């Protein structure tokens, strides 16, 4: 089944702003080379950036890119361009509604997009934490999901890397085969 992994980085929780968006289209049944999958990845510049200290510190690298201090060879779009870019990407890669996969996607990531984008998404999403939940303890966070899957790495807190991790976690959970 074709779906899209999505991840966003923000300036905080409720009422915060987007800083980075990544969407990667993949097949949930067959593995492909992650680097070759269709993807949309960009950084989001707002006229004024506001947020909580923890999130701003965690996303310091993104803020440096937005300010033009580091790695200026990245795509930066204004906040007003986000929804049209995402809609165009969905239209290019999906005939109808999009099934999304991600961590905390329904109650967090999707809230940063407008109604046109949300209306293009199926009402059922794949939440990575639910895939790796043992049914007893709390639903695992992304770091716990990686550990349960046997992936020895830290959560990067960069949208593209986290979107790729979502895909790998789905493939490992269901022992997906390599495409021949």
Would you mind describing this structure in some detail?
The protein has 180 residues and is an alpha/beta fold. The chain has helices spanning 53-58, 60-66, 82-93, 115-119, 128-131, 142-148, 159-173; strands at 2-10, 18-27, 30-31, 39-45, 76-78, 100-102, 126-127, 177-178. A six-stranded mixed beta sheet has the order 5-4-2-1-6-7, with helices on both faces. A two-stranded parallel ribbon has the order 3-8. It starts with a strand and ends with a strand. 29% of the residues are buried. The mean pLDDT is 94.
Mean pLDDT: 94
What is the terminal separation in angstroms? 16 Å
The CATH architecture is 2-Layer Sandwich
Poorly predicted ranges: none
Number of strands: 8
Number of helices: 7
What spatial form do the alpha-carbon principal axes imply? Answer: globular
Q: Could you spell the SSE succession in H and E letters?
A: EEEEHHEHEHEHHHE
Provide the structure class. Answer: alpha/beta
Strand residues, percent: 15-25%
CATH superfamily: Ribonuclease H-like superfamily/Ribonuclease H
Largest sheet: 6 strands, mixed
- What is the CATH topology assignment? Nucleotidyltransferase, domain 5
Give the strand order of the largest sheet, numbering strands 1, 2, ... along the chain.
5-4-2-1-6-7
Distinctive features:
alpha/beta; six-stranded mixed sheet; 180 residues; 7 helices; two-stranded parallel sheet; single chain; globular; Nucleotidyltransferase, domain 5
């Amino acid at each position: 089944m074709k779906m899209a992994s999505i991840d966003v980085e923000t300036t905080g929780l409720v009422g915060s702003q987007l800083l980075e968006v990544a969407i990667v289209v993949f097949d949930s049944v067959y593995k492909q080379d992650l680097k070759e999958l269709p993807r949309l990845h960009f950084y989001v510049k707002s006229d004024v950036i506001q947020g909580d200290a923890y999130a701003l510190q965690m996303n310091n690298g993104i803020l440096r890119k937005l300010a033009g201090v580091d790695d200026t060879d990245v795509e930066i779009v204004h906040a007003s361009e986000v929804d049209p870019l995402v809609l165009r990407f969905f239209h290019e890669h999906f005939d109808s509604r999009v099934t999304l996969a991600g961590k905390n996607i329904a109650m967090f990531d999707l809230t940063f997009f407008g109604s046109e984008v949300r209306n293009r998404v199926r009402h059922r999403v794949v939440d990575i934490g639910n895939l790796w939940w043992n049914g007893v303890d709390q639903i695992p966070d992304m770091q716990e999901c990686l550990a349960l899957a046997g992936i020895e790495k830290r959560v990067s807190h960069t949208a593209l890397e986290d979107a790729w991790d979502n895909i790998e976690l789905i493939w490992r959970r269901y022992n997906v085969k390599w495409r021949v």
